[in-house]
Amino acid sequence: MTRILLLFLSTLLMVACKPGIPKDIVQPAEMEKILYDIHVLDGYVGTLPTPDSAKKVSAPLYKGVFKKYGIDSAMHAKSMAYYYQHADLLTKMYNSISEKINKTRDEETKRQENEKRLRTEKLEMQDSLQRVTAQKKITDSLKKVAKDRKADSLKKPAKPLKRLLKAPKSVI
Known about the structure:
Elements: H1 2-16, H2 28-46, H3 51-69, H4 73-85, H5 87-154, H6 162-166
């Protein structure tokens, strides 16, 4: 019985003393979110046309990310140093980040394609509406001409000019 108790206590101590992530390091779930935001921010900064404006714009944006998660750049650097030493954790985080970025990229591509399709459909509808409006104007003008002709035909026939009828015939 004492052997079983001793085995149980030793197992309990091994499990209880399992090294975890220190309290002064950003935890993996939170670090994953921070790294995702930083990489999205890096993508934006990379699209800026001049390096000088990228430097001016990026510093406050990075500070905003750190503020969002309640950390500072020193804590971020310390946490990254820890995760560099524990590559298995960093690899798991980056696999998840990569999946999120790919999913976001795919969603954005679908959204842009949908917007393009909607713009094309809108232009086609506008063209169709213009054609219908032009056809209606032509139809309306043809109806007006037909109505005018009908009104003219209902009038009394014009009397020929008497002087043209009585005019002397030219001598040849």
